[in-house]
Amino acid sequence: MKSKIRALGIDDSPFSRDKDYSYIIGSVVREKNYLEGILIKSIKVDGMDSTEKIIEMLRGKFSDQIKIVLMNGITFGGFNVTDIEKIYNETGIPVVTVVRKMPSMNDIEKALKKHFIDWEYRLELMKRHRIMQINGIYVQASGIEESSIKKLLEQFTVRGKIPEPIRISHMIGSAIVYGYSKRKA
C-alpha cells in the first residue's frame, strides 16, 4: 500500500435488541491517522442491510479518496452480516475485518440456527474468507493479499492492536448512544 492513503474505518454503535435500528459509523482517516471525515448510516438490528449501507458510504462524499475499508468484525447491529466480497466486487476497494479474539464458529452457528431462518446464508458469509492471525489480531479480507495486510495494519495503528479508523468510529458510536465514548473497540 502507498503511504498517505485514506481508509474508511467502520464500527457500529451500541445497540439494543428492543430497537429496530443501530448505526454504522465510518471514519475517513488519512495515514498517518488524520481524521478527514465521518459518515453515518442506520442499519436494521439483526437485518441484512449492512453490505448495501457500506457500499452507499463508499459511493458517497469521499468516494474518490478511500482506498481501503477496515471493519470491526464482519457483523454489525447484532447479526447483520456484511458480505465483504460484494463490497470489493462492486466498489473495487479492498476490505479487511479485524477482531481481537478468534470467533467460535460453533457458538455462532448455534445462535444463528436458533434465531434466523436464513442462518445458513449468514454463516456462509462469515466463513467465506479465511481467518488469519496477523499482528496479534484476527482478520478476514477481500481484494487484498495477506502480505499487504500486515503493513496496512501497521500504517493505521497508533497504540494497541486496533487500527485508528476503527477506534475512532467506535468512540463516535459510543458517544451517539451514551453521550460520551466508552469501552474498547
Major β-sheet profile: 7 strands, mixed
Specify the CATH class. Alpha Beta
Number of DSSP helical runs:
6
Strands of the widest sheet, in order across it, are 3-2-1-4-7-9-8
Instruction: Using the CA coordinates, give the radius of gyration.
Output: 15 Å
Low-confidence runs (pLDDT<50, min 5 residues)? none
Rough shape?
Answer: globular
Structural class: alpha+beta
Question: Mean pLDDT, rounded to whole units?
Answer: 93
CATH topology assignment = archaeoglobus fulgidus dsm 4304 fold
- Terminal residue distance: 24 Å
- Could you estimate the helical fraction of the residues in percent? 25-40%
The second-level CATH architecture is 2-Layer Sandwich
CATH superfamily: archaeoglobus fulgidus dsm 4304 superfamily
State which percent range the strand residues make up: 25-35%
Number of separate structural domains: 1
The total count of strands amounts to 9
Order of helices and strands: EEEHEEEHEHHEEHH
Explain the overall architecture:
The chain is α+β, with helices and mostly antiparallel strands. The protein has one domain: archaeoglobus fulgidus dsm 4304 superfamily (archaeoglobus fulgidus dsm 4304 fold, 2-Layer Sandwich), CATH 3.30.2170.10. The chain has six helices and nine strands. The strands form two sheets. Strands 3-2-1-4-7-9-8 form a seven-stranded mixed β-sheet. The protein has a two-stranded antiparallel ribbon with strand order 5-6. Helix 3 (about 105-115) runs antiparallel to helix 4 (about 120-125). The longest helix is centred in the C-terminal third of the chain and has 15 residues, at about 165-180. The radius of gyration is 15 Å and the shape is globular. The model has no long low-confidence stretch (mean pLDDT about 95).
